[in-house]
Amino acid sequence: MGLQKPAQSIDTNKEKMNWSVLLGAAFLMATSSIGPGFLTQTTVFTQSLTTSFGFIILISILLDIVAQLNVWRIIAVTEKRGQDIANLVLPGLGFLLSLLIVIGGLAFNIGNIAGAGLGFNVLFGVDPKWGAAISAIIAVIIFSVKEAGKAMDRFAQIAGVVMVVLMIYIAISTAPPAGTAFVKTFAPDKIDIFAIITLVGGSVGGYITFAGGHRLLEAGITGKKALPQVTRSSVTGILVTGVMRIALFLAVLGVVSQGLKINADNPAASVFQLAAGNVGYKIFGLVMWAAALTSVIGAAYTSVSFIRTFHESINRHYRKFIIGFIIISTLSFIIIGQPVKVLVIVGAINAFILPIALGTLLIAANKKRIVGDYKHPLWMTVLGIIVAVAMAAMSIYTVYNVFIK
């Protein structure tokens, strides 16, 4: 008779495996939001708002946490993907949500691939298109291995830690006025609502809203019993994004406070170079490449997860669809370059996805036929509605001013 593993050992192994997935989901969401746009946005807003930008970061982190807590929690309780929940709320709504996310994810992935190519160019001096192609091959390899989920989790974790450590190093190098920044975080001189909306949209907008929740669903971490784990994972992801944002904010602030001029053509790269010379410029290349490639992986994985349940063949061959998604994004960049106009238009569409998605899931959370006997916390519902309405209002305002006025 063979020896059996003690029950305690099995439970410990399962706990370790769950923690790895939870951490992977957190980093998948965090690194999906830390892309080329993240680096540029943070740099530009810090230049204009200086120490008061700390307040914008604080508010955006709080709004991000509200959005992610609601979305991840409802996905876990229903044990369904976002599009399936939306279809239960209103037949056809899930298809509309999927269409918006796939179009937005594909367009932004072209920008992410471009960012990966730029990072390669800074690091090794190769043509950005070759850098983009090499980066795409690495992403394809990750989804080609047998344990693609684990490979994706591990890559996101390693890349996330590397980016945060390098950003903290650059922030320290610029010797920013941290004390003043801390004070102004709670007592800002000026408040820019548009900056808050931009940061929230960039952190949890579009496909990013569902990246971690769908990953946990695939790994089987669902149900009311898993809610404490789901909550920890979602907050961890937001905090990783927040630490990265704060480190970059302090780095830019240090450069600005020294009176150094940031190059408007490539503001983020300029900050790294001014902070630490040529070494800083190479660090920018590595951070840009890691940020872009993890965003490529997150966008491809999450976008395809929105069509997996529409046909059994898609679900069975979903990794091939993810690889195809990456290849199409890469070829689009190599053949026609980064379509700026398309990105702007899809950016406006992307801004609508968070209020639509969050609003839909909040409705679902209060329907017994969808969540059974689960009671969604009232404070989460109220705060979620506030975030959804605020994002919708600012999205309409932006579209009106950019495309209509």
From TrEMBL:
Pfam families named among the record's database cross-references: Nramp
Membrane topology: Multi-pass membrane protein
Membrane spanning stretches: 21-39, 45-67, 88-110, 130-148, 155-173, 193-213, 234-256, 283-306, 318-336, 342-365, 377-400
GO cellular component: plasma membrane
Keyword Transmembrane part of the UniProt annotation: yes
GO biological process: iron ion transmembrane transport
Protein keywords: Membrane, Transmembrane, Transmembrane helix
Location (main, coarse): membrane
Domain of life, per lineage: Bacteria
Name of the molecule in the record: Divalent metal cation transporter
